[in-house]
Amino acid sequence: MLLPTMHLTILNVSYSMAPVRPDSVGGAEQVLAQLDRSLVFRGHRSLVVAPEGSLISGVLLATPKINGPLGRSSGRREYRFQREAIEAALARWSIDVIHMHGIDFYEYLPEQTTVPVLVTLHLPPSWYPPEIFKCDRKTLYYHCVSTSQQSSLPPGPRLLPVIENGVESVGAFPKCRKRSYAAALGRICPEKGFHMALEAAKLAEVPLLLAGKVFSYPEHTKYFERKISPRLDPLRRFIGPVGPRKKRRMLAGAQCLLVPSLAAETSSLVAMEALAAGTPVVAFPAGALPEIIEDGRTGFIVRDVNEMAEAIAEAAFLSADECRRAARERFSQERMIGRYMDTYRHLAKHSKQAS
After folding, report:
1. Cα–chain-centroid distance for residue 180?
2. Same domain, 99 and 223
3. Host domain of residue 119
4. Per-residue exposure over 310-348, b if at least 16 CB sit within 10 Å of its own CB, e if not
5. Closest to 122 in 3D by CA, of 25, 45, 256, 226
6. Could you give the CA distance from residue 129 to residue 125 in angstroms, rounded to a whole number?
7. Cα–Cα distances in Å, from 211 out to 126, 156, 220, 233?
8. Using alpha carbons only, how large is the chain's radius of gyration in Å?
9. Contact assessment for residue 113 and residue 139, using Cβ atoms and an 8 Å cutoff
10. 36, HSE (Cβ side, Cα atoms, 13 Å)
11. CA 292, CA 327: separation in Å to the nearest integer?
């Protein structure tokens, strides 16, 4: 006899200042978009609190979009909008789980509620206020997206097992002839270190396509003006944001992907996508990147710009099939979604039993 399926109502809450779209640059927004689509596809109710301009498969509870430079002063108003949207959703629907994705989630955490609140820590734990990990709310749970990230947190009853990020299946990426350019992609900001990718590509005497978005934070725009723009030339180009289709072609045709991150990366969706496209990854050993890249097999872990330049040439001899194998076996979107669905059901069932 088949057991009845538990139909869920999940409220996903985005970072207060980042719209959620298929072409989002941020990893948190991309994961949220994947969860939203999967919930709807599986017949569940998906509610999403996110800024205006978001493209959602379920029900969008839109908060007003920020105009002008981003920063802490604009955040106070956004937190109020987030809180009001969450409260309105709780009043209207019987929600099974609230799933928080923003680094600022604690600013609009709903008042004590019997509804379980799951917080995905998309960023290094040190970037969050330490007091949030001492919260004794029995309905508040955390989880990390990589083993290296979780190792920096003390174990506790509210810390759930790691759920690694996942990307589209290998079949979603075109198989095309490799060309002699390196690629780099992501938010254009100081901690991503893309100026070092430009330097490495110039040393290696290969073209580089740098894609991504410069958000209107003052430190981001200054970084682009002072560190990126002076290093651009006819062979090393900045092409701005790219949509999903163009990104797949760009990754599939590249000789390698460069990830010169200077921050402790908790994950790297673009590195996983590159592997799914059959493209090796050359990266610094920042955070979880050594967990993603099999050094000498699906890419190279390097220590500086000179080593990165050498690895660009060596990457041409790595197997595209090995890269696709790693993505298929270790970083599938289906695996990630399945683990989130299991977590939702577990939290919802535990909450109902406790009430």
Report:
1. 28
2. no
3. 9-166+332-354
4. bbbeebeebebebbbbbbeebbbbeebbebbbebbeebb
5. 25
6. 8
7. 28, 39, 15, 15
8. 21
9. yes
10. 27
11. 9
Encode pLDDT of 45-72 as tens digits.
999 999 999 999 999 999 997 665 555 5
- Chain segment 263-292, per-residue pLDDT in tens: 999 999 999 999 999 999 999 999 999 999
* Whole-number Cα distances in Å, 206 to 233, 236, 283: 12, 8, 17
Q: Considering the domain boundaries, does residue 220 fall inside one?
A: yes
Residue 33 sits in the same domain as residue 149: yes
Q: Is 80 in the same domain as 205?
A: no
Six token digits for residue 158: 């509210």
Helix ranges restricted to H, the chain? 27-41, 72-92, 147-150, 194-204, 218-223, 244-253, 269-276, 289-292, 305-315, 320-330, 333-354
Q: How far is CA 302 from CA 112, 196, 293, 308, 336, in A?
A: 47, 12, 11, 6, 28
Overall number of domains in the chain: 2
CB 327 within 8 A of CB 275: yes
